[in-house]
Amino acid sequence: MNLYITGTPLGNLNDMTYRAVETLKSADVILCEDTRTTRKLTNHFEITTPLRAYHDFNKFETEDRIIEEMHEGKVFALVTDAGMPVVSDPGYELVRRMQKESLGFTVVPGASAFTLALVLSGISSFEFTFFGFLPKSQAKRKEKLKEIMFHSHTSVVYESPHKLKETIKQMSEVSPDREMSISRELTKKFEQNVRGRADELLNMLGDEIPLKGEFVIVIEGYQEDEIVSDIPINEHVGKFIEDGMKPKQAIKMVAEMRGLKKQEVYDAYHK
């Protein structure tokens, strides 16, 4: 193998697996987001493997060198600051390049914050969508939040402490009664998981729920009050648009809910 995509603890170092320790010890180089963060981990487990920065700002300029060294026989381990690499973190581009060049890679499994939060939420997990971090642009962010709040399956979102209150506020404005869960500091000393209505959780932020740590929000799927099979498709799309959704999103949502192709819904709406 040329690359081991290695999961590391979210916060509690006791969650580090034996296989992960051995993998990091035996690799020639550890690729990591922040060498200072990963060095705390390697020092704790007495891992002396050299560290090399690989993150969103240098991934493309360092990729050629990494691939060249792999062809020469070097073995790399890829880690993130916490949890599973590639999930809402850089790495998939490197995997695609390796696939193209027939280089070997595998995963050394570890914790992922969104799966832990989903399990702890008490919200249905039979079907869910992981949205990761929301867009930075305010306009795109509002658009994505509306999509999430009208999504028919459970949704999972990552959020930072300084944006959490505004995010929950916008969710509450769309659907104050929607059930959701907020998790923070997963696996750490001050781990917290709170489930309730959107408006209830909004009032708890900054008090019962301190705005510290990284957050995972789990949102119950949108439940259509009416029996959709009895509503004409164009009216169904129109209802979502009245609620503030863009036509393209509304068409996609109706197609998902009715099990139809988007083109069928598009044609029905425009006719």
TrEMBL record:
<dbReference type="GO" id="GO:0032259">
    <property type="term" value="P:methylation"/>
</dbReference>
<feature type="domain" description="Tetrapyrrole methylase">
    <location>
        <begin position="3"/>
        <end position="201"/>
    </location>
</feature>
<keyword id="KW-0963">Cytoplasm</keyword>
<dbReference type="InterPro" id="IPR008189">
    <property type="entry name" value="rRNA_ssu_MeTfrase_I"/>
</dbReference>
<dbReference type="GO" id="GO:0008168">
    <property type="term" value="F:methyltransferase activity"/>
</dbReference>
<comment type="similarity">
    <text>Belongs to the methyltransferase superfamily. RsmI family.</text>
</comment>
<keyword id="KW-0812">Transmembrane</keyword>
<dbReference type="InterPro" id="IPR000878">
    <property type="entry name" value="4pyrrol_Mease"/>
</dbReference>
<dbReference type="Pfam" id="PF00590">
    <property type="entry name" value="TP_methylase"/>
</dbReference>
<keyword id="KW-1133">Transmembrane helix</keyword>
<keyword id="KW-0808">Transferase</keyword>
<dbReference type="InterPro" id="IPR014777">
    <property type="entry name" value="4pyrrole_Mease_sub1"/>
</dbReference>
<dbReference type="InterPro" id="IPR014776">
    <property type="entry name" value="4pyrrole_Mease_sub2"/>
</dbReference>
<protein>
    <recommendedName>
        <fullName>Ribosomal RNA small subunit methyltransferase I</fullName>
        <ecNumber>2.1.1.198</ecNumber>
    </recommendedName>
</protein>
<feature type="transmembrane region" description="Helical">
    <location>
        <begin position="113"/>
        <end position="134"/>
    </location>
</feature>
<dbReference type="InterPro" id="IPR035996">
    <property type="entry name" value="4pyrrol_Methylase_sf"/>
</dbReference>
<comment type="function">
    <text>Catalyzes the 2'-O-methylation of the ribose of cytidine 1402 (C1402) in 16S rRNA.</text>
</comment>
<keyword id="KW-0698">rRNA processing</keyword>
<keyword id="KW-0489">Methyltransferase</keyword>
<keyword id="KW-0949">S-adenosyl-L-methionine</keyword>
<keyword id="KW-0472">Membrane</keyword>
